[in-house]
TrEMBL record:
<dbReference type="InterPro" id="IPR037069">
    <property type="entry name" value="AcylCoA_DH/ox_N_sf"/>
</dbReference>
<comment type="similarity">
    <text>Belongs to the acyl-CoA dehydrogenase family.</text>
</comment>
<feature type="domain" description="Acyl-CoA dehydrogenase/oxidase N-terminal">
    <location>
        <begin position="20"/>
        <end position="129"/>
    </location>
</feature>
<dbReference type="Pfam" id="PF02770">
    <property type="entry name" value="Acyl-CoA_dh_M"/>
</dbReference>
<dbReference type="InterPro" id="IPR045008">
    <property type="entry name" value="ACX4-like"/>
</dbReference>
<dbReference type="InterPro" id="IPR009100">
    <property type="entry name" value="AcylCoA_DH/oxidase_NM_dom_sf"/>
</dbReference>
<dbReference type="InterPro" id="IPR046373">
    <property type="entry name" value="Acyl-CoA_Oxase/DH_mid-dom_sf"/>
</dbReference>
<dbReference type="Pfam" id="PF00441">
    <property type="entry name" value="Acyl-CoA_dh_1"/>
</dbReference>
<keyword id="KW-0560">Oxidoreductase</keyword>
<dbReference type="InterPro" id="IPR013786">
    <property type="entry name" value="AcylCoA_DH/ox_N"/>
</dbReference>
<dbReference type="InterPro" id="IPR006091">
    <property type="entry name" value="Acyl-CoA_Oxase/DH_mid-dom"/>
</dbReference>
<dbReference type="Pfam" id="PF02771">
    <property type="entry name" value="Acyl-CoA_dh_N"/>
</dbReference>
<protein>
    <submittedName>
        <fullName>Acyl-CoA dehydrogenase family protein</fullName>
    </submittedName>
</protein>
<feature type="domain" description="Acyl-CoA oxidase/dehydrogenase middle">
    <location>
        <begin position="135"/>
        <end position="228"/>
    </location>
</feature>
<keyword id="KW-0285">Flavoprotein</keyword>
<dbReference type="InterPro" id="IPR009075">
    <property type="entry name" value="AcylCo_DH/oxidase_C"/>
</dbReference>
<dbReference type="InterPro" id="IPR006089">
    <property type="entry name" value="Acyl-CoA_DH_CS"/>
</dbReference>
Length: 394
């Protein structure tokens, strides 16, 4: 009797490390996302518009409360579960996963880690139930990788208020966010500080970035701040330097590694399914050696990616994960993801460039995942310094 076909991209069973309750919950989430969210994804990507009805659907799953159980449903979940949740979101649609990640990981994470208890209690409950949407404004038009040293957005203290001036770019959720965490350099002491701007605000303007070829559903914005006044109570009280900002980025960088895995997993699934039903020369193309070679190379990359992200989250659970390990995970997984989506598009032939077959979206979106949260080069230098003791940063 022939062995059953193994269709699982988790070839080595990494999900078995989850508890039975977590696996059950994850399966329920996957079924809900497939049924309620996936039908919205391709049209939204094609039109470059955000499907606002998805917010209510995400709210039903309490997707914004998992990392902050005291503000969510009170259930403590493992970091590994959070990683697999990211994988599932990205399998459905990387753009909608970015919406969730910006809101939860970056905006809520900044307030949770950088704010005091009063600020957490003030903003996070409404963010957890998605009645308030957050954005994270760090990158600037002239400052991406060099934003730490080259930040031009300024903050000036005037009595009980701060006056913000400057510009930000590539701000996800920026066109419709209710709360925007803005990072600015204090004119008095030169330190980078964090501020929660509640929109609409006088002098705050967000303009949608058009013409993107990746993550088209994400409403990235160019933001200008012209004498925007923010009360002292909106300054994140536990942020005193860019190092505090970097702590938020280090935690979300590992999340991007899971995002890369989710993109690669879906590209592999699409390619495997297509190879079994697409016929040429009288048989499914999956029966040709070169196609099987592509599939196995893709599965090998996916398996290696599973290994690094699962171990990273285990280290986080033990309180031992480092920024350097997160940097290596991000650099490695996004590079391997890029190979996987390229091979998947190749396997589809001409059909690989048509949105109807879905792989084109993941092929395009991979370019954005590869670039944000620190480029491969910047993350490589972080790890390079760790393993040599010598800084190669310019």
């Amino acid at each position: 009797m022939p062995k059953p076909v193994n269709t699982d991209p988790d070839f080595f069973g990494f999900a078995d490390k989850l508890s039975e309750a977590e696996r059950t919950e994850l399966a329920e989430i996957r079924e809900y996302l497939e049924r309620e969210v996936k039908p919205l994804a391709n049209q939204a990507w094609d039109t470059s518009e955000f499907p606002f009805e998805v917010i209510e659907k995400f709210a039903k799953l309490r997707l914004a409360g998992y990392q902050f159980p005291e503000y969510g449903d009170g259930k403590q979940r493992s970091p590994l579960f959070t990683g697999f949740l990211s994988l599932e979101l990205n399998r459905i649609d990387p753009s909608l996963a970015v919406f969730s990640g910006v809101h939860t990981g970056l905006a809520m994470g900044s307030i949770y880690n950088g704010g005091d208890q009063q600020q957490r209690d003030r903003w996070i409950p409404e963010m957890a139930d998605l009645s308030k949407i957050g954005a994270f404004a760090l990158t600037e038009p002239e400052g991406g990788s060099d934003v730490a040293g080259g930040m031009r957005t300024t903050a000036r203290r005037e009595g009980d208020e701060w006056v913000l001036n400057g510009a930000k770019r590539w701000i996800g959720n920026g066109t419709f966010a209710d709360l925007v965490v803005v990072w600015a350099r204090d004119e008095a002491d030169g330190a980078v500080k964090g501020f929660v701007v509640e929109t609409p605000a006088e002098g705050f303007e967000a303009t949608k970035i058009e013409g993107k070829i990746a993550l088209r559903t994400v409403q990235n914005a160019d933001i200008t701040l012209a004498d925007v006044r923010v009360p002292e109570e909106n300054r994140l009280q536990n942020v005193n330097s860019f190092r505090d900002t970097a702590k938020v980025l280090a935690s979300t960088r590992g999340g991007v590694a899971w995002q890369a895995l989710g993109v690669a997993v879906r590209a592999y699934e699409l390619a495997r399914e297509y190879a079994t039903r697409r016929e040429q020369f009288g048989k499914p193309i999956g029966g040709f050696q070169m196609i099987q070679d592509l599939l196995v190379k893709m599965l090998g990359n996916v398996t290696a990616m599973f290994g690094i992200v699962v171990r990273l989250n285990e280290l986080v659970a033990e309180g031992a994960g480092s920024a350097e390990q997160a940097a290596l995970a991000k650099a490695f997984t996004t590079t391997k993801m890029r190979e996987v989506v390229g091979w998947a598009r190749e396997l589809f032939g001409g059909n690989g460039i048509v949105l109807d077959y879905e792989v084109a979206k993941f092929f395009a979106d991979a370019e954005a995942v590869y670039s944000f949260e620190g480029s491969r080069e910047m993350n490589t230098l972080i790890v390079g310094k760790s393993v040599t003791g010598i800084s190669a940063f310019a």
